[in-house]
């Protein structure tokens, strides 16, 4: 009895897919790790290198600046030279730059190495997510791409644990070991990634048909071939400049706007949670445990969103995520003198509900652009989102001082509700489409383009 063979888009999830999902999460994990580890080490660094306030701020922001620079550059190189080679070279760079921090003797040198680490980490977002998206069957693409967001929080948590442990054990120059510790997870992900094949979609797009066919047979089985991979439709000439005009320009505007609306309040509140809670009159144990609880709820929100992403659909999840998180922030602004329980309940609601928008930051950019410019689109979105993160983080303490907590919450609510409006206007539904259909301008994505 013969068995009907399905397209690779409908193939069952296999061991290769699961391993690739874990290996690809290295970028978000290392992002959370390197951005958080500097906070643990900064107290010792300031004394050892005699840092001024200017250099403290610049070094703390250096990796974030690097992510901004590395996102688009990494995406462009990935689309031009392939996913596989950049997939390995980038992690080698992260490992090497992390080790180099151990021997720095000046503020300038530390800034330079952390800037380079940030560039490498930023480049890994488009490299890893585009490779993963191009291998995953449509049913599992959304959940597994979304789950990568959880790895940022995991990286941040591990950084705090490792940093505190090393500082307690190594009394002299412990900060050097703390900063260089990023080499361990970087090396582990590097070893795991070795042997990962090139994306057959990228190979096919470059005319390397035989290689693409060999990869498909290796990953999906000998009964599959390039005939089972949805063929690219050359609607028009597509280059990186397509991100700035015509149909793909509108999609890029949607990605940029919704990602910015999602990340500005979250990064700002996450970075200054104790200060924000203090402004809301939460002191003592309420403030300490409240910060921990909010961090946990951010993670919980992302986890729940990964489980619901196919059931709810991308569009409805994004709209509801912005809407209800925005209402929670609005209520915080309206009732800044509410009881501690009410304040934490509203903050918790925001933290859980914004998870839907957070996980879609990796899903939509990979689905809405074709193979030729997919990594470039993810990289550009990554870079632009860091502008919002930096601005929001910088303005929070100023806003709390000059505008007060109520108006600060109103501003954050306005950003989230604007995100809901943008999502209602522009967000497409792609959950039932294969990658070729979702990225095609003529595809039935039910978007208002």
From TrEMBL:
Signal peptide: none annotated. It is a multi-pass membrane protein. The chain crosses the membrane at residues 20-45, 57-78, 85-104, 110-132, 144-162, 174-192, 252-274, 286-305, 317-336, 342-364, 376-396, 408-427. Residues 20-431 form the Major facilitator superfamily (MFS) profile domain. It holds the Pfam family Sugar_tr. It is found in: Membrane. Keywords: Membrane, Transmembrane, Transmembrane helix, Transport. Belongs to the major facilitator superfamily. Sugar transporter (TC 2.A.1.1) family. This is MFS transporter. It comes from Pseudomonas urmiensis.
